[in-house]
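Field log, afternoon session.

UNIT: design team B
ACTIVITY: writing a sequence onto a fixed backbone
BACKBONE:
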């Protein structure tokens, strides 16, 4: 951590108190992004008594993943998840659940400045602000490059959103999503993946490789 971590955290705490003054908990938001691997098994298992642990079996699709932005408010309300599927064409005849917005995007870079401003902000956070008629709501996010652009700041200014950036290298201490949400979120998904792997009839490719769970299955789980 930075040598002046204590002073950085003290300033961040003061900024939080100043910006949140007079706000209801429902008007204070925290957002973060993460990846969900289609092969989400535990890293290791045990083959039989007396043996060392071995790598857990997978479908061979460890690099296949979807990207998810999760937004929560300070009163524990979870906004719809913004899910990026790494494909250019929509899934045929697919209607996602009400608590999920799906965006199709080819290429390796997922949450760029445009997606944050016109995807997560415009389609997830702004509708919540408008429907609740919130004035000067607060959005707390980390200091990722895509969060600090003029495009994102202009979108926040357009809707009167106060933007507060979590200091770099300290998200593991003060980022609510990072500290409280994602660990349990991924543990729960890993459990459901294991149930899918052990309890579902699987299909295979012509070469005999097991297919990974579909995007639709991953979103539902």
């Amino acid at each position: 951590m930075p040598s002046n971590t204590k002073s950085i955290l003290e300033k961040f705490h003061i900024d939080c108190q100043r910006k949140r003054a007079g706000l209801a908990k429902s008007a204070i938001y925290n957002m973060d992004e993460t990846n969900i691997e289609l092969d989400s098994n535990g890293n290791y298992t045990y083959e039989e008594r007396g043996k060392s642990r071995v790598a857990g079996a997978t479908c061979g699709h460890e690099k296949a993943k979807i990207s998810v932005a999760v937004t929560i408010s300070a009163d524990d309300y979870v906004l719809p998840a913004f899910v990026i599927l790494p494909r250019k064409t929509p899934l045929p005849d697919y209607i996602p659940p009400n608590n999920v917005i799906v965006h199709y995007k080819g290429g390796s870079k997922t949450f760029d400045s445009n997606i944050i401003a016109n995807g997560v902000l415009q389609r997830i956070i702004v509708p919540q602000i408008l429907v609740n008629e919130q004035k000067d709501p607060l959005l707390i996010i980390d200091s990722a490059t895509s969060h600090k652009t003029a495009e994102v700041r202009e979108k926040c200014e357009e809707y009167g959103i106060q933007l507060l950036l979590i200091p770099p290298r300290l998200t593991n201490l003060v980022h609510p999503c990072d500290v409280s949400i994602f660990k349990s979120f991924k543990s729960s998904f890993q459990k459901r993946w294991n149930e899918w792997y052990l309890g579902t009839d699987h299909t295979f490719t012509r070469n005999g490789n097991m297919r990974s769970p579909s995007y639709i299955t991953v979103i539902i789980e």
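LOG NOTE: Helices lie at 5-20, 113-131, 150-158, 171-174, 176-199, 215-220.
NEXT ACTIVITY: expression trials, pending approval
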